[in-house]
Sequence to fold (626 residues):
Amino acid sequence: MNVVTRIRFPCAPESLSLYLRCSDGAVFNSSQEQAEVAFIQNSILSLNTYFNSFYAKFYAKYTHLNYLYYLLTLEGDFKISLYRESYKKESRELIYTANFDKCLLSEPIKVLLPDSWRSENAGRVYLEITCLSDSGLFLDGYIVTEQPKIREVNLGIITCTFKKEVYVKNTVSKILQDNFLSDKKFKVFVVDNGKTLQKEEFNDSKVQLIPNRNLGGSGGFTRGLIQALQEDSYTHFLLMDDDIELETEAIYKLFSLYEYATQDFAISGSMLDLYKKHILSEAGALYAKSIDSQGNSQHNPFAVICLKHRLNLENTNVTNLLLLEDSPEYGGFWFFSFSKETIQKIGLPMPFFIKIDDMEFGLRITRFLSQSIVAFPGIAVWHEPFYAKNPIWDNYYRFRNHLITNCIYSLSGYIDIIKFLTQQLLYSLLVFDYNSAEMVISGFEDYLKGPQFIINNDPENIHSRVVGLSKSYNTQSLVANFTATNKPVCNSSNINILQTGVFRKIIALVTINGHLLPDFLLSNDEGCYSIGSESADYWYKEFAKKRVVIVREGNNSVYLYEMNRTICIKILMRWFKIITKSTLRWNCVTSEWKNAFKYLTSSEFWKDYLNLNEQTQKSIHKSLVN
Fold:
């Protein structure tokens, strides 16, 4: 008997609707010892939810599984009903029902999935449990097969952290405490870029702490990959951010999917909004594309389309949309798994420090290998949403690494890229964000230096310089720990051109949002721009204000930006000079990046980059001395 997946109970009340739906009289109880659902007569437990649905369509397509059954631990008399839903049908289909009398906790009952679960109509399957006795209990449930595994899976789990000790220790603890995972072959590699963790904090043979230089996420993940590859034990790898809230079933499902897989594929775990736990932020994504006003995909340099973006998973009809399978071009490294063969064929991640490393890695899988990246529904983690965070120095890596990726895959021409970067720089100036404008320029300048810039410079020194540049202008300040009572109130962001006036927008653009206006036409009041999960304010909303406040949903800190005409003009003049020089260098630097790509993703490069060769020599010297 092999357990394919488990019926899971929620760890926190705010995520209950993603696991269970209880009618009046059915109550979920949880304690450290045990979780259960208690029933009174005629009360119903429905597993018509995001996490406890069985997404038959995906298992039918990607695995050899065919004979499956539910194994349920119940006490009392029950009616068990099995339903199927599909995005093609508006109503649900009852595919099995039966009564089970005098159920005992010591004797789990079997509910066979009909053979039709593998049919072309395979959709999403779920249970409903109705109590027929005066009272009843449900303790646990599994989907089980008697089929032998096609292959053994040994998973190398790699997470890297930089001074987020509480997060990473909590994540590792959850993995080790999952009794079902203890029967699986895996090892967790914790790469500590901040060197703030202690070996004795991970006193388990299934965990290895690896102190590392601060080379960002890409350096941390690659350091863990190199270590895992050297051990030569692992069939698959999982890259996982340290600051996620983990549902360990996501890891458990990887094993059964790969154990019975019909083909080699990567799995992109979905990202759920940490602050709105029922909202799906992303289930894989497309690169260098955007959606036009008619809803069609079109090429757009550096843009991404987050698939299944902002779906409300409390709505069961919306959950059926997950059955519409996309073809993601990449998946975020907050939870991304792939086979050993994949890494052997395409090489290691690019040395991007942070940002775009997962995008470029995914493009290699889908374009060079023509291999699928699958966003399996129900495999997900909670992660801090993009709208809540945006450190200014982060923009340097975003633009520089986008440029490198665009070059490697020949996605856009020079004119389109310059147009896009100019728009980004101009937007920063329009909201008085001069430091972000500096990041656009610095990222472009360093890209033009070619791959030798990365090869010949210490990444920690580069990062230190970038952080310093992100504070170049003292017209911006960060105010931390704003509370709901003292945070500025922004007007609704649902503003269109008709409400603000086309003329006003044109004047705002021509004057660079007031930079070119005389002082007497400017207001001393503070403007307010809101950036939220649903939308962001238009840049011209607070036209002709000397100062603006940037408020991000989910973030208790705000940025205060103040207009400075001199800085604005200097940045624009500098940008135009750089563009002029770049026309002469463009073709040459493009060839340099393409030619260096294979080396930059090789073990040879990374061992030098990580100083592993130097560490090996020191280790040999030390052993000889001793």
Q: What stands out?
A: The chain has four domains: 2-145, 154-384, 390-472+565-595, 476-563. Residues 492-499, 619-626 have pLDDT under 50 and may be disordered. The two ends are 52 Å apart (CA to CA).
